Automatic annotation (TrEMBL):
PROSITE patterns: BIOTINYL_LIPOYL. This is Pyruvate dehydrogenase E2 component (Dihydrolipoamide acetyltransferase). Keywords: Acyltransferase, Pyruvate, Transferase. Pfam families: Biotin_lipoyl. Residues 2-77 form the Lipoyl-binding domain.
């Protein structure tokens, strides 16, 4: 099975990225979570891990190229029925999640998720009214 890995959505407001450096080449084996490439956005330099294990078939975008989110960057040959990394499996679109799942809606960035115990803001003491008015 051929897994077509596309540039994932790297955060709010990021629409494109530059392939700075490939960490894999055609014919090389790749492990799940192994860094595939370094991508420069207008906000940060990001190392992107592989959501699958297999063998790199083709690198489709050269170093230095600037591409929009969703552009297929590399093809990886995998075993039929192989699992995709959990973060990628919930992506809900072609690219980091493999094939499009048709899920709608917008994902929240992990750093923006609510804390399980509620907000971590200091609380003000409750105001009390005095009996003398």
């Amino acid at each position: 099975m051929v897994y077509r890995w596309a540039l994932p959505d790297l955060g709010e407001g990021v629409h494109e990225g530059e392939v700075v450096r490939w960490h894999v080449a055609p014919g090389e084996p790749v492990a799940m979570d192994q860094v595939l490439a370094e991508i420069q956005t207008d906000k940060a330099l990001v190392e992107i891990p592989s959501p699958v294990a297999g063998r790199v078939l083709r690198v489709l975008v050269p170093e230095g190229a600037v591409v929009p989110v969703g552009t297929v960057l590399v093809e990886i040959e995998t075993e039929p029925g192989q699992a995709v990394a959990p973060a990628a499996a919930t992506e809900g679109r072609t690219g980091a999640g493999g094939t499009a799942s048709g899920e709608g809606g917008r994902r929240r960035h992990p750093a923006r998720r609510a804390h399980p115990e509620g907000p971590r803001l200091p609380r003000r003491p409750a105001r009390t009214r005095s009996a003398s008015a």
